[in-house]
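Entry 14. Structure prediction run on the chain below.
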Amino acid sequence: MTYDVQALREREFAWASRGECIYLNNASTGPLPRRTLEAIGEFNRKRSRPWEVSDEDQFGVLRRGRELVARLIGSSPADVALMVNTTYGINIAARCLPLRSGDVVVAHDREFPANVYPWAALERMGVGFVRVPTVDGMPDDAALERAMDGRGVRAVTTSWVQFSTGHRADLERIGRLCRERGLFFVVDAIQGLGAAPLDVRQCGVDVLACGGQKWLLSPWGSGFVYVKPELVQSLEPSVVGWMATRGTDDFTRLVDYDFAWHDDARRFEVITLPYQDFAGFNESVALLHELGPEAIAAHIEGIVDQAVAWTLERSDLRLVTPADRRRRAGIISIAPRDPPAASERLTRSGIAHSLREGAVRLSPHCYNTPEEMMRALGILAGDGS
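Output returned:
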């Protein structure tokens, strides 16, 4: 399946059609499509006249959000709780999984801090956190597998796509290894979801957290956590939301207290959520469904493929991201001889990017074109081609 990139730019990202910016920084913050801005604006217009906002306006937005997310990751809406960021979702895993003193959690070193500090905080309770050393800055899959067999290991946590190198973890393989050993498997998906398709059940993920502001092209303050259905009812929230229990949907009987959790992942939600932001989130995720996750992935892959091939032909640049397309998604990181100078050239030329861990990070999305990537690469290399 393909889609018309120029029509998409004109319809949803008019600034791109006008050439205001070559935006290759979706791994930092994705732009909001036109339809998303309109949905947020309409909800806020109602919010300015609160008597116009019905319960269905609010809770219908959340219900639709769970449904859209479930379609995107291959789960049921009952397995999805809406969250305000990735970190909160990772904390659900760190604080709710049955980890005790003497247990160990294993991760690759050089993870993004959101998937480090929630686990490191457990060390105060006697839970060990082992970071497996990288090889030349890249995750060492063989070492991770060996670490899984270490004494006391109960859980493995990983980023699906590593934020600085673009390395893409083989979630199916890690999930299988975790199942064979009876380990919990936790995934930070924020740098992959929206750039590549995902099926959480096929990958054997127990808990997956994802913010919406990057590849999902959604507002800050939107995101979700997936909890495997077999786990949901065995885990108790560490932070209690007032609508996390059964019966609180009936606002006429709120003092008929019944401290019994919802049977689904809503038990982990802490209301009140930013409804207006989730109204926008829904439109952005619906756009991804409309374009087709597989078609988006193929489009991004084509752009990144050409950048990889171009970089490998040069002696003045080092490709940080794996050349193997199976081990990358939407991020390409390239190390020039003088990264800050290259970054400055890109900035002066109106090309949005990031400088991460000694490399220039470029991250195209569904609305970008191959020509934009080649323009950026020429400026990065200093030849302007």
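The radius of gyration is 21 Å.
Filed with the rest of this week's runs.
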